[in-house]
Every structure is written in structure tokens, then in C-alpha cells.
Amino acid sequence: MYEFSSINKYRRFLFGIATIWIAWFHSYMLDFSQLEALSFLNIGVLVELLKKLGNIGVDIFLLLSGIGLYFSFSKNPNILQFYKKRIIRVLPSSIILVLIVTYLSHVETWKLFFIRVTFLNFLFFKDDDQTFWYIPAILILYLLFPVFYKVIQKFKVPGALVLIAISCIITVAAFFINFDMFFYQWEMLLTRIPVFIVGILLAPVIKNEKKISNVTALILCLLGLIYFIVIHIIDLFISTKYIFIWHYMYLPLALFLVFFFSYIRSHVSLSFIVKPFEFVGDFSLEMYLIHQSLYFFLLGKISFFDNHQLIYAIVIILVSIVLSFILKTLINLIFKLFKSDKGSKKKATA
Q1: FRET label pair with 116: which of 24, 184, 205, 271, CA 20 to 30 Å apart?
Q2: For the chain, what are the domain ranges?
Q3: How many whole angstroms separate alpha carbon 261 and alpha carbon 56?
Q4: Residue 7, helix vs strand vs coil
Q5: Three-class SS string for 131-185?
Q6: What is the pLDDT of residues 288-317, one digit of tens each?
Q7: Burial 98-116 (b: 16+ CB within 10 A, else e)
Q8: Is 30 left (phi over 0), alpha (psi -120 to 50) or beta?
């Protein structure tokens, strides 16, 4: 039997897979289809295809976030405390990294520097540099979450469908009204709202520990594989101008992948396979933010890697993991010291 609770039980593992996949996707200069070692049976072409699909890792992030937020909010529906926890989780590491990256990128004016470090370039200013778009996007979803939660709690599936429909209407309207200005920035968030809502909708199923037979699970895996093939065929006929349609098609695939990898994890307990992904899953946000910036910052600066892009991609991922672990550890240590100092002051004044 497959238990849907596996999705929440193995969320660290799932976050780890999504993070590595995104890092793989962001290794832009690496083309697996050109590697002679993978030319047999066009394996390199398939690997490159999977790499180009790596931004679906963001959809997996948001699906799992919707699930996790549901569990957290249902335990403590205090909105102010909910926002405080989310801000503490996201902003410290994000602000540190955006300050460092923006400073090193030598922006032309102080105004542009301010716009980027405050994430205002995502919604209000046209800016080709959207390295940290995920931060304002996830903060907006955190802000909207209590509304989504209340609607889904009261109206269940119909409520979720209405919310998804509204978000799709906004996307289409933004496409036709303001395509040349901000749409290419906004659609990164707008097309991910449905998967976030589906995560909230799926959470009660996980919480109630619903189960399906292994036969049903295998059928779902087969359907997911068929869907994977179908969307790539559809992609051949979609103009890049309508890329948002392609992004909407990620939702069923993200659902399938979360189900598939949690199913695999529930049957595989080999530490050398599982532990690395769970380790990365503990600081997935930091890894996501660091990797892309580090990849481009060091690109072309070490001549050896110019002709060894695979080695470069692997090295950057490994270095990003180390830096992410250090950053997360330092932030946790600072918060622990702050809480300890705050507790000491309370005792002293008591």
C-alpha cells in the first residue's frame, strides 16, 4: 500500500531532489547532448531534456510549501505568528545573499541597488536581473495563504478551483495588457499560484493518511510517464511568447513527481542514496539562492573549466552545498544566541 502521508514524511528528501534538479537546470553552459560519453542510444539527449525541465523544481517547492503551511497553520491559526515564522525563515538568508550578490554585480546606480536589495524590481520595475525573484514571490504567497486556507477549508475543491480560475484570469489579463513591461517577470509567480493552491488542497488527504494499493500507484506512475511525453510533444507547437501555457502544464507533472519520488523513498532506505538528498533538503532555500549566483560569478574566471563544463557544474553544486550549510548554520546560531540572551534578560528583570 502507498500512504499519501509519505509526501510529508519524506519532505526533506523531496526538497533535496527538487533543489539539486534546479541547480542542474541552472548549469546553463553544460549541454549533455554534446557529451560523447552519453552519445550511446542518445542518452545525452534524454539527460539534457530532463535538465531543461529542472525549473519544475520550483513547482515542487511550492507544492510542498502549500502542504507544509497547511499543517503549520492548522495547528496554530494565529496569523501574526504565522507571518513572523515565515519571515524569519526566508528573509535573513535572503537579505544577506542579495546584498552580497548585488554589491558584487557592480550596479550602475544607488537607486538600482536599492530596488534590487528590497526586491522591488520583481513587481514594480522592469529588470532583466531576476536572480532572486523567488523571494518576493514566496512572500506574496505567504501573505495570501490565510485567504487560500479559509476558502479551501470552507468550500473544499470548488473553492480551490475558483481560486485557480481567478489566478489564471489574472495571468491572461496581464499577458494581453502588459506583456512588454512586466509580464515576463510576473508570470514566474502567476503560473505557480495553482500548484501552491493544490498543495493546500492535498494537505488534508495527507493528514488523514489516505492509502492506495500498489497497483493503483503503478498505474499513476504510468499515467505520469505518458503525460511527461505528451507535454514535450505539445511543446513543439507552443510559441515561446506563450511560455506561460507551458508553465501551467507543470502542475500535473509536479504532482506526479512528488508522488513518484515519495513512493520510491518509501521503498528505498539505502543511506548513501537517501541521506545526501535529505541533507540538501535541510537548507534548500539557501542552496537555491546561492547556486545560480555562484555559477555565473565564477563562470570564465578559471580557464581549466572553460573546456570542462561538467566538472565545473559539479564543483559549483558541491561548493554551493557547503556555503549553504555554513550560512544556515550561522543564521541558526545567531537566532539561538539571540533567544538565549533574551531569556537571560527576562530572568534578570524578574
Answers
A1: 24
A2: 2-349
A3: 14
A4: helix
A5: CCCHHHHHHHHHHHHHHHHHHHHHHHHHHHHHHHHHHHHHHHHHHHHHHHHHHHH
A6: 999 999 998 888 888 888 888 889 999 999
A7: beebbeeeebeeeebbebb
A8: beta
For residue 182, what pLDDT is reported? 67
Whole-angstrom Cα distance, residue 4 to residue 211? 6
State how far the Cα of 30 lies from the Cα of 35, in Å rounded to an integer: 9
Cα separation, 217 vs 3, in Å, equals 10
In this structure, are residues 12 and 282 in contact, taking their beta carbons and an 8 Å threshold?
A: yes
Q: Span 159-163, mean pLDDT?
A: 96
Angle, in degrees to the nearest 10, between helices 134-178 and 79-104: 80
Cell numbers given for 230? 505528451
Give the closest residue to 328 by CA, choosing from 282, 292, 293, 274.
Answer: 282
pLDDT digits (tens, 9 = 90+) for 67-114: 999 999 999 999 999 999 999 989 999 999 999 988 888 887 888 888
CA 17 to chain centroid, in Å, comes to: 11
Q: Which residue has the cell 500512504?
A: 3
CB atoms within 10 A of CB 339: 10
Burial class for 313, CB neighbours closer than 10 Å (0-12, 13-18, 19+): buried
Q: How far apart are CA 121 and CA 188, in angstroms?
A: 13
**Dihedral pair phi/psi, residue 2, rounded to 5°:** -105, 130
Which letter, b or e, does each residue of 181-196 get, where b requires 16 or more Cβ atoms within 10 Å of its Cβ?
ebbebbbbbbbbbbbb
Q: In this structure, what C-alpha cell is assigned to residue 212?
A: 492506495
Can you tell me the distance from the alpha carbon of 277 to that of 11, in angstroms, rounded to the nearest whole number?
A: 10
Please give the mean pLDDT across all residues of the chain: 87
56-75 and 134-178 helices, crossing angle to 10°: 120
Cell (9 digits) for 94? 535572503
